[in-house]
User: Fold this.
Amino acid sequence: MSTSHTDAADIAASLRAEMVRELREMGEVISEPVAAALATVPRHLFAPGEPLEAAYAADRALVVKRDASGTALSLLSAAHIQAVMLEQAEIEPGMRVLEIGSGGYNAALIQELVGAEGMVVSADIDPGIVERARTCLTAAGYDRVEVVPADAENGVPEHAPYDRIIVTAGAWDIPPAWMDQLSAAGRIVVPLRIRGRTRSIAFDRSDDVLVSRSYRLAAFVPMQGAGAFREHTVRLAEGVVLQVDEEPQRFDVEALRRALGSPRLERWSGAAFDLPDELELFLLTNMPQVAMLHAAEELVDQGRFALSAARGVPVLIRDGSFAYRTKRPNQETGGFESGVFAHGPDAETVAAEYVELLRRWASDHRRRGAARIQYVPKTARTSLPSRGLIRKRHGTVIVSWP
Assistant:
């Protein structure tokens, strides 16, 4: 081996060790097997052409492929989210694992975790990505991984059943094939879209339903193929849209447009603003008619919308009125206080309803992992509750707050 290659290998090893140290400090790596896998697999070999520092950045995703418009079709996910999902999966030696969405690196990590007695199948709908993954895995010494072309909607039945199914593309639903190919005591880790936000959810199988073990906010390139789903947007004004994740809801668009021009009503909850991703999940799953409100940054800078609307915020809609969350400094509530901006003829009513939800979350559910998420396939012989239902193509997501 030449001196330059030796130096590069030493630098990569040092950066890899630093990445693992940083992931431990972030709290994303908590188990020794996951730490050992991350410390072993040469991540830079799955990112050819990228600087070593970029390949080993703990919080940086790298684009593998874009479409003609420049939209990313495939990513080498940031190491921190890969670590999170592997910790959620709790993979053990000897397991059979299906990875849906291939890139090579994550499959190599899984191969380290299952060991010589286990099996890893990595599937992707894009033949080019399949070939790229095979090439990178071979170069890194992980040619035992079975990389196959497949539409995620169908899984890979020929190697089933699987003890774990790990999905590395944003999914709007859980296809029946995944349940069919999951072992009786298996687990699915999937970035599932729930009302405009994606969370990596670890679901354990319980007979014919799935029950969450943990969940974390995440972002992934959306699924392609038969399971693809396009979000719906409703334009209210220049730079202002509603994002609707389920099948189109019926909004009085003209009335909402008029509401935008009405005076803004402010109401404050007296409750702490904290853990925004947990609060957001609570709001999205406890409002009868909800969408995500997005406003352009220049409108936020002009003071026409709260900062929360720049990244998207749950908006409660009642006919021609709406309300959404904001915050302000308040040391008496621990730093920030949650509140509401409302518009429209019934602004008082929607503001009061929203404020009550903010108070309920702060008093009863202000902690990590407070929600219980279930997935009930249409074929399951299970009665559904009256609240917390989010309908999907193949089943129903149930979010409850014990």
Observations:
- Residues 34 and 86 are 7 Å apart (CA to CA).
- Residues 232-364 form one domain.
- The mean pLDDT is 93.
- The two ends are 60 Å apart (CA to CA).
